[in-house]
Amino acid sequence: MHVLSKLWKENKKFFAFLLLMTIFRSAVADWNVVPSGSMLPTIRIGDRILVDKMAYDLRVPFTHIDALHLGDPLRGDIVTIDSSSAHELLVKRVVGLPGDVVAMRENVLYINGARIDYQPLDMTPLSSDRSERGEYLAERFAQTAHVVRLSPDAPSPVSSFGPMTVPQGMYLMLGDNRDDSADSRYFGFFPRNEIMGRTARVAFSLDPARLYLPRFDRFGRKLDAPLG
Q1: Which of 38, 83, 181, 205 is catalytic?
Q2: Residue 226 domain-assigned (yes or no)
Q3: Which of 119, 168, 174, 208 is the most buried (most CB within 10 A)?
């Protein structure tokens, strides 16, 4: 006990700092590692994304309990989800809001009966491997636009669904890498209280294909840059 007491007295400022940082990361802001390619090309494998934990709610630290409601996710937001269905933290894009009627036909989205606009993009492939070549499209919602990726050589078994109505208190989420994303097509709708925050920027990025060397062009990068 004497050793512990001495350790506390000599390092209490450091321990207090660690506690405050842990609370800050739990309730205010955090960064998360992205281990999969489900959000390609928007988020690359190895990106560390900044997460605004107060984008929608102020929560009691280390819980899902709301202390203050600040807003709700908008269509097109990229969010982190502490998913009880997937048993892991997911990063997906909000596509369907509560009350929306959403359908997909061969990777083309329809929201409330209106077909979403798509425009082909001329983008450099993410890999020189022919099996990983992709087709890139600008997907435009009412006020936002972002890039989605299709994989002609490895299409998703679920490229069509619905129409289905998003229940109150729930959200429909999809990955931007439409042919390689485990999202609402597999896990169903995501509850509002599982949405932990919003991300819009990369903090920093390490390339797993190059011995985790930094990718400096990704540092501070805005995720949904203007498409023109």
Answers
A1: 38
A2: no
A3: 174
